Each structure stands twice: as structure tokens, then as C-alpha cells.
């Protein structure tokens, strides 16, 4: 019917926007997985629909005309908005993931090595793993379960705290370090001769020497690591003797990557806990219970 303007050619607009944004017809063709001639055809179609050229083709290389620049800018903004809206709609259509927060030691040493077992047993539960950090509160508005390290059970409103693993730490080192020192390292002075590794500060070693009755040094030497995983890596590489939570290095002890040097433990008043809100939507609570039951059944496996 006369007087009715045909709808804008969307494929042609998309092709033109890609040429303008990427700087060439060949780059646009590669990005859109079509031939260069197809891109050229679409751009010509758009120019016919607009009733004016978008490129100055008088030189060796086509150049955008001023109104072509304006159109390309507006198209990039519009297509970007469409893509964002589509991603948002897709995310809203997908089932929400079960968000599990874990302090780095639990995440690296316990959870991630066992996570494939949970995913195999429960492929219908999407997962998201994030960090929590010692001494920092967990945001339970976005987190459904959290592994924490605490002196006594955390007392938080509407949060269930379940004991998970003991937090006691024992002195360990690598077999290579033992061999380098004649095949044995005696507790106490022997540890000082080899060198101590510290987690956050020297207080744990001070407690260990006090508990054993051994004379502590006037000043503790050795590097201090701000994260247990850094401390563990240093111990594994033979850099000294470290006090490590036994629950986090069980696999290393079983494999022989680390050797326990004494039965005297420290940090006995600390434990690992699994926290979960006591309320929430039915689906999330059901998934959280499934994960909690799996974690409790798997916590002593190596």
C-alpha cells in the first residue's frame, strides 16, 4: 500500500554496524560468519532502503560519511541494549545457582577436589563457588551456604552453624626437607634448625612451643604467609616446617607429600563450620540440604 514505509532491514543494519565498528567489510564478514560479498550486498541494500550512500567510495578504501557515522553510533548503542536485554532474560529463565562460599583453605584443599562427585550425583543443581574470608561476615543475601573457620560455633541470627571438620594444626614438612637434614627432624630445636613457616603471624608456633614445654626462641624467624594455601605451597616445596590444619592436608599426608613431625596440636579451640540460613525459598532450601548432606558424608574422604 502506498504511503506505508517498509520496515527497516534488520540484517542489513546489523551488517552495516559491524563494518563501521570493526573498520572493514572483511572483519565484519569474519565476525558474522558470512562471506564478504554477503556483507557488501547487505550494506548496498541498506543504502537503497535509506535512499543515500553511507560510504564514500571514491578512494582506494571506503570511508564512512558523516551521517553514516551517526547511524553506526546509534546502531551500536541499540544493538548493545538488545544484547544486554537478551542476556538478562536468559539469566532470569535459568534456574538460580546454589551459591557456596568457602574460605580459601576449604575451597582449594577440600571442596574443589570433591566437587566433581557432587556434580555427578546431582547434575540438576547448578553451582557457584565464591570465597569467604576469615574474620569477615558472609553476605547471606547472596550466599546459600558457607564454610568458615571459627573459635566456637558462630552465633548469627537465623543462621544454622553445623560443625564440619576439626581445626587442630600439626607440624609438617616435605620428605625432601627431612632427607636434606639427615633423614630425621627432631621436634623443638630441630624445627628451628630447619626453619619455621608462619600463617598470618607467629602466634601458633609460640603456642606450640609452650604446649610442648620446649624453650621458644627469643624471636621467631621465618617467612609469614597471609593465606593458608601460600603456607601449604611453601611447605610442599621444602621451605620449612609449617603448622597446618590436619583436616586440610589429609590428602597430602596420605600421598606422602607432607610428613607429620609431632602429635602435639595447636588451635584446638578452632573448627570448621558449615553455615546455612534457616529460611528461604523452597527450591533453594532443598538444594542446600542436599549439598549439606553430601558434604557431611564426604568430609572424611580423601
Detailed description of the structure:
The protein contains eleven helices and twelve strands. The protein is elongated and about 95 Å long. The strands form three sheets. The chain has a five-stranded mixed β-sheet with strand order 4-3-5-12-6. Strands 9-8-10-7-11 form a five-stranded mixed β-sheet, sandwiched between helices. It is of the alpha/beta class and 302 residues long. Helix content is 45%, strand content 18%. Helix 1 (10-22) crosses helix 2, helix 1 crosses helix 3 (36-50) and helix 1 packs across helix 4 (66-93). It has helices at 10-22, 25-32, 36-50, 66-93, 104-121, 175-180, 189-194, 203-212, 228-236, 250-255, 282-298; strands at residues 55-56, 63-64, 98-102, 127-131, 145-151, 159-166, 169-173, 196-199, 224-225, 241-245, 259-260, 270-277. The mean pLDDT is 90.
Strand order of the largest sheet: 4-3-5-12-6
| Number of helices in the DSSP assignment | 11
Taking all residues together, what is the mean pLDDT? 90
Strand content: 15-25%
Helix vs. strand class: alpha/beta
Computed over alpha carbons, the radius of gyration is 31 Å
* Helix share, percent: 40-55%
Low-pLDDT parts are: none
Distance between the termini: 75 Å
Counted beta strands:
12
Choose one word for the global shape: elongated
Major beta-sheet overview: 5 strands, mixed
- H/E element order: HHHEEHEHEEEEHHEHEHEHEEH
